[in-house]
Amino acid sequence: MTAGARPPSWKWWVCGLLLLASTINYMDRQTLANAATRISHEFGFKQEQYGNLEFGFGLAFAVGSLLFGFAVDRIRVRWLYPTVLLLWSGVGFATGFVESYGGLLVCRTLLGLFEGGHWPCAIKTTQQLLAPQDRALGNGVLQSGTSIGAILMPLVMRLMLTDAPGSWRFPFQLVGAVGMLWIVLWFALVSRRDFPAPVSTTGRGTMSGRDLLALVLSRRMLVLFALAAAINTCWQTLRAWLPKFLMEGRGYAESGALYFNAGFYVATDIGCLGAGALALWMARRGTSVHSARVRVFLGCALLCALTSTVGLFPRGGALLVLLLLAGAGALGVFPIYHAVSQ
Predict the structure, then answer these.
(1) Are residues 207 and 200 in contact, defined by beta-carbon separation less than 8 angstroms?
(2) Which of 106, 155, 156, 251 is the most buried (most CB within 10 A)?
């Protein structure tokens, strides 16, 4: 079947594959957060050092997002995307063999660098395949994979962790190996003709240094930078510290914290898919695309703002409900952000 003869449903199958990539991405990312207490005890490092692991990941992720964002405008996404996934899966697999805090720091930093390429590649894919009115929903499908991965990972940990030292290593190796399957599915579903060759936005073949600087310093780009920093700070704080906060900050047992962590990401998935679907529903009933996005983003941002009150609540039902609502809002803003950036 040629690219021109693709059935209308094909683009949504590709979105499903993007969902799977996001799932693998977050399973790799969440292995450390879910095993952090065990690994901290085994390697004997402190909270500050765990913070350094997440800092290294976050800084490398930012660098990787920029590097691969630059690359995806110049290299066909059909080849760049599986290359990026191969690199981060390989690093995730290698993490299961580290024997020191230093080795763990190197692996987490490299994981952040290569995982930073997922979003430019995935967003480029939806931007090229979907019409503007469909992108919020398509991005919602893409983004919801993060929650699915984060839902699955605590359950995988619960099944695989034992009292034996080092049992935390097997989940790292398992998830790293799963990435290989995605690469096979990607090449089976898409062909070279599905994605146009990258072209310069300047129309002159290459972008000059002055043009690039003007683009980076433009008002719209600066607003996007600020917006991305704000929403990712909240989300990454919840992602990285929630299991430790529940176990070490509020006294929950490891099993209880892992099960709640899975439930937390069910709530975030509902928020993510719901935000994309609501924006599409509003647009199809007469609201302008921009107004629909703004209204949905505002609602999700207000839910996200509940995180500012989490520290005031002791262990109990009210704290858990608050975390669920905040999580739904924290991930719900992402499909709208991605649609705006496109």
Answers:
(1) yes
(2) 156
